[in-house]
User: What shape does this take?
Amino acid sequence: MTEIIHHLKQFIDPEFLIQYGGLTLLAFIIFAETGLFFGFFFPGDSLLFIAGLMSGTTYLPTHIAVLVLTLCVAAFLGNTVGYLFGKKIGEALYDKPDSLLFKKKYITMTRDFYARHGGKAVILGRFAPFVRTFAPILAGTAGIDFKKFMLYNLIGALLWVPSFLLAGFLLGSTFPQVKDYLHYITAGIILVSLVPIIITFINEKRLNQNK
Assistant: This one.
C-alpha cells in the first residue's frame, strides 16, 4: 500500500514528471487536463511553472520557446477534443455515478462558473483547476458556437501556457538556486490556483442559503 501511495505521489509531482517524462509527457498531460474528463487531477499550473523554472535553470534541456509553442498547441488541441467530446456524449456525464476519479460536483462547479461568465469561462477556466477540464466539455454539451469557442480556446491557451511558463523561466534564470525549493513553490502554486475554486464554492453555498 505504501508503495502504491508513493507511485501516486510521483505521478502528480511536477518535478518528477518533467525530469523523467520530458517534453512528450508534458504535452500529453497539458492535453489530457484540458481535453479528457479524467485529466482534472493533473497539476497543470504547477507543471507549467516548474517546467519554465527548470528550463531557466538548464535542468530541463528544452528551449523556452519550444516549450511555449508545444504546450500552447497541446492546450489548444486538448480543449478542442473536450468540446467535441461534450458535443457528442457530454450529457451522459450528468448521469455518471461518483467514483474515485470523477465527482458530479466538478460538473456542477463548472456549470455554475459557466453560468456567470458565459463563453469567457473557457478563457478564465484555464486558470482554475477542475474548471479547465470540464469547461470545454460543457461548452460542447451546451452547443456553444464552434467558431466562437475556438476563438476563446485560442485566447485561453495563449494566456495560460505562456504566463506560467515565462514566470517560472524568469524566476529560474534570475535565481538559479530556487531549484532547491521546488516543493515549496509547487505547494504555493497549488494553493493559489485553488482560490477560484474556493470562491466558487463559497458563492454557491451562499446562493443556496438565500434560496
